[in-house]
Amino acid sequence: MDVTITLTVNGIKRTITTQPQRPLLDVLREQLHLTGTKYGCGQGLCGACTVLMNGKRVLSCVTPVVQADRKSITTIEGLAKGDSLHPVQQAFLAEGAMQCGYCTPGMIMSAAALLQKNPDPTDDQIATAMNVNICRCNGYTKILNAVRGAAEKIQGKSS
Ligand code: FES
Ligand code: FES
Q1: Domain 87-154 adopts which CATH fold?
Q2: Candidates 3.10.20.30, 3.60.110.10, 3.30.980.10, 3.40.250.10; correct CATH number of 3-78?
Q3: Taking the model in full, what pTM does it have?
């Protein structure tokens, strides 16, 4: 049976009627047309579908949309503030930390969640926090550099 769910996505309140167990990822992509969040494995194993729910990282392919009821969701489309990209987005661009780019939105969302919680992570902490995010192009060195760069920017150690 369908249920009505109210959630805030990238600052905009949305009310949708859908099956409660439908993956949040499907709602974001198919109902709300926010296609920056990617479908990879659909099983919680690759991180391509990472979004923030009340500021915490979740894998939207294995998150039933009912869990998002009355919550605030941030997708890659909502990370920038107006014309200003988030420091993690800036760092990924500056470092060229993407090849095909398919994993990039999920990587950026995971890194943003990590730096929100721990603005000065060690490399091990970055690797541990982001180990759910898989890059099939094996671009991990540049991704690590980008997260380090974003951390420095957030701490004001670089411009
Ligand atoms: S698509 Fe969600 S973890 Fe792979
Ligand atoms: S850049 Fe291609 S999957 Fe990561």
Answers
A1: DNA polymerase; domain 1 (1.10.150)
A2: 3.10.20.30
A3: 0.96
Q: Closest ligand to 141 CA? A: 2
State the pLDDT at residue 159: 63
Region 124-135: mean pLDDT is 97
- Burial class from Cβ neighbours inside 10 Å (0-12, 13-18, 19+) for residue 81 reads exposed
23 in ligand 1 pocket by Cβ < 6 Å?
no
CA distances from 64 to 17, 59, 126 (A): 13, 10, 27
Q: What pLDDT, on the 0 to 100 scale, is given for residue 139?
A: 95
- And the tokens for 20? 């409660």
- Pocket flag, ligand 2, residue 141 (CB < 6 Å): no
Per-residue pLDDT averaged across 110-124, rounded? 97
